[in-house]
Amino acid sequence: MKLSILVIATILAPLVGATFPAIAYSPEDLEQLKQTGLCPRCDLTGAPLNELDLNGANLRNANLSQANLSQSNLVGADLSETNLEAANFTSANLTSATFTGANLRSATLENANLTRAGLFATNLDGANFKGATTTYANFRGSKFRLTTSPSGLVTSDRRYW
């Protein structure tokens, strides 16, 4: 009987973890960002940052994976070397933002404004830019694989480097 319970628990444990992913951001880091606009190397995994005014924010080397930044103002923000995997930037203003070396894998940037943004050497695999404004944006050295362009076209699944 004890063996059966152990086997069942062993089988169910990974399934429960997969169903309810652990998304935990630091409340202190979130408060620091809201108060000062400075939060380099912060843990904001899954943080609710939608509709915030983060104009000129310093989020360098931060972890914002799965964060909700929809409709936020990030004009001139520094997001270099930041983990933005699966982050939501829907309708965000990212004018002149810097993403050098950032991970935007599977991020949603639908209808975002990326005018004059610097996306140098970023990972854009699976990112969605449908309807985004990319006027004068610089994508030099970035990785595009299954990336949805502003027009809705999807890039090849073959790597370009």
Produce the secondary structure layout:
Layout: H1 2-19, H2 27-36
Description:
The protein has 161 residues and is mainly α. Helix content is 17%, strand content 0%. It has helices at 2-19, 27-36. The radius of gyration is 18 Å and the shape is globular. It starts with a helix and ends in a 125-residue tail after the last helix. Mean pLDDT is 88; it is low at 1-10 and 12-20.
Summarize the structure.
The protein is 17% helix and 0% strand. It is mainly α and 161 residues long.
Over the alpha carbons, how many angstroms does the gyration radius reach? 18 Å
The shape is globular
Q: Note the run of SSEs as H and E.
A: HH
In angstroms, what separates the terminal alpha carbons? 55 Å
Helix content: 10-25%
The tally of helices reads 2
How much of the sequence lies in strands comes to under 5%
* Major sheet details: none
Based on the model shown, name its key terms:
disordered N terminus, mainly alpha, 17% helix, 161 residues
